[in-house]
Protein: Iron-containing alcohol dehydrogenase
Amino acid sequence: MSEVSRLRKFVSPEIIFGSGARKTVGNYALTFGARKVLIVSDPGVHQAGWVDEVEQLLAEQHIPSVVFTDVSPNPRVEQVAKGAELYHEEGCNVIVAVGGGSPMDCAKGIGIVSTHGRSILEFEGVDRIEIPIPPLICIPTTAGTSADVSQFAIISNQQEKMKFSIISKSVVPDVALIDPDTTRTMDTFLTACTGVDALVHAIEAFVSTASGPLTDMHALDAIRLINTHLALLVEQPEDTHLREQVMLGSMKAGLAFSNAVLGAVHAMSHSLGGYLDLPHGLCNAMLLEHVIDYNYESASDRFRVVAETMGIDPRGLSQSQIKRRLMQHVISLKHEVGLYQKLAEQGVHLTDIPYLSKNAIKDPCILTNPRKSSRRDVEAVYEEAL
Ligand SMILES: [Fe+2]
Structure:
């Protein structure tokens, strides 16, 4: 490895973590000189009351706001365009995103389009943003996607039935107000999907070819926190300590993957989610053990540490035994949180796999996967997961 390829950088927003963090939104908006704020959310989060509270908190600082909730799961190019139009029409100069990954990614897209005046489709890929986006404050209401700390935005192109990734430190929010209280309005399925998404972030970041000491500590901590607390939280959703620990795990997983990038699970899951409009966490869950099986030998030392962190004692076990134990552990964890789904029952047919694989190997996340992957390799993993 050359000297330069060993260098690592680490970017992160300013983070306020803990119960009540969301209530500082008015102060932050004021600090950014907010004239008018565009609040980006979705109908479910709006109904849960989190948007009204943010409006109120801004109003207390005499900051007017306008709400945009035309955001679907897997946010779309057209929604980004519509949000950017509203941002301009209303004379906004700050964006606050309240919600899960979809509103936060949509808000990042709105920020990009509002400063560049061009379609979000033109910003696919790594480091394509030329002009900084407006100040962006994120208040996550799920514990998993970590768009609030990441340099990723994933947008769905419905015409092409695919999702595309925008990776740039320009889309790292200015402030993440990470408040575990907000996750109490998630249902069990969403808690499970987003929690497993966070676990996948941590595992993929740890075995990524771009991992390093700045991200490893966060990745391992995240694996430990989610492994220990997620199934308990699904069982006891009212437990505030469990809620906080899973939120912390999600945040650490986010810091890890934002800087070490991801791998084949996400490359394949983006392709799948774009094609069938399925929940992102569920796509990851259906692929995880199959990608571990595929990747294991290319990063066996790293996977051994993952297994140990999840409570598997590897002493006296061969590499293939550790791999099997790890795969089994991941499957058990998914079952404990209620995720049993397989690709075929979600509508994936054998004949869809070439198209899914073609898009997966174009996703930037495949570049940091520990095993170099051809289209045929990816097809074989989808086939295993059917
Ligand atoms: Fe993810």
Summary: The mean pLDDT is 96. Strands lie at 14-17, 37-40, 65-68, 94-99, 125-126, 136-140, 152-157, 162-167, 175-178.
